[in-house]
Amino acid sequence: MIPLENLLPNLPTSFVDLAVYVVGFMGALALAYGVLLEAEKRQDAVFVVASASLFVYALVHHDKIVMFAMGLMFLVAGRELIQIIRGKHKHSSDMVKEYERE
């Protein structure tokens, strides 16, 4: 049997490295899934989880641009989610009509 390291030489060898890659991969999948969601509350909740996961991945890999983007996305999506939960996030009737026409 050929060792897995020979088949995939770039595969992380430590458990922590592998866990970080899994968290980053799951965050990317969650981000893509969140774009497809229609319900705004669910979408914001998925964006919060996805951005937190990708922030952790970027933090470990010292990627400042992705850390900034995901940190900002976490704050914005989290703020909007809190507004929706509190019932303070409203759409005007004009905005709803414009959305329904598209």
Features:
102 residues; mainly alpha; 5 helices; 77% helix
Short description:
The chain has 102 residues and is mostly helical. 77% of the residues lie in helices and 0% in strands. The protein has one domain (13-101).
Structural class: mainly alpha
Helicity range of the residues? over 70%
Largest sheet: none
Integer tally of domains: 1
Question: For the CA atoms, what is the radius of gyration?
Answer: 18 Å
Task: Give the helices and strands, then pairings.
Layout: H1 4-7, H2 15-36, H3 40-60, H4 64-86, H5 93-101
Description:
With 102 residues, the protein is mostly helical. It has one domain. Helix content is 77%, strand content 0%.
